[in-house]
Design goal:
elongated; binds zinc ion; alpha+beta; four-stranded mixed β-sheet; DNA Binding (I), subunit A; two-stranded antiparallel ribbon; 6 helices; 2 domains
Length: 166
């Protein structure tokens, strides 16, 4: 059960699990915007599990519970090659490139992995982008703001900025 987190400007800033959502409410760090239809019962009382909460203070800290995995890297990069911008959504040539190659100590992290087409990945080989004369397209490498929230919960579509909702 996931909770959508909005920042103080009502923009989605993350998705967290419901326990963390309740904790933010208890700590008075967030307001409930939409309840879910779920409740938990303790000995003394009943708590409504939130569906959407809003942080009280302006906060750029992303509360992310996104799993680091291949699919989420593709989603962050909107299924485009981060080197040549080719759309790879319906393309089998989609791969993951390590910016600092694994053979040179590059890690499996959000900051070091990008979506790449086979051609760019092949061209880059075991080089850094600079060495290969290739440029990473601008855009966040951090897992903020990118996941298609509608995949998780269609009720959240109305909170998406237009650009992402399309
Ligand atoms: Zn490419």
């Amino acid at each position: 059960m996931k909770v959508l987190v909005l920042n103080s400007s009502y923009l989605p800033t993350g998705v967290i699990n419901w326990k963390r959502g309740l904790k933010l409410l208890f700590m008075d760090k967030a307001d409930i915007i939409e309840p879910s239809s779920y409740k938990i019962r303790t000995v003394n009382r009943e708590y409504i599990i939130p569906n959407v909460i809003k942080l009280k203070t302006y906060n750029n800290i992303a509360y992310m519970d996104y799993k680091y995995c291949r699919t989420n890297i593709y989603k962050r990069d909107r299924y485009r090659c981060r080197y040549c911008n080719k759309s790879l959504k319906t393309n089998n040539s989609i791969t993951i490139d390590h910016i600092i190659p694994k053979s040179r100590g590059g890690k499996d992290t959000w900051e070091n992995t990008v979506t790449s087409c086979v051609e760019c990945n092949y061209k880059k080989k075991d080089l850094t982008p600079e060495e290969a004369g290739m440029k990473l397209l601008p855009g966040s490498l951090k897992p903020t703001y990118f996941i298609n929230l509608a995949d998780i919960n269609p009720e959240w579509v109305k909170y998406l900025p237009v650009r992402l909702a399309q």
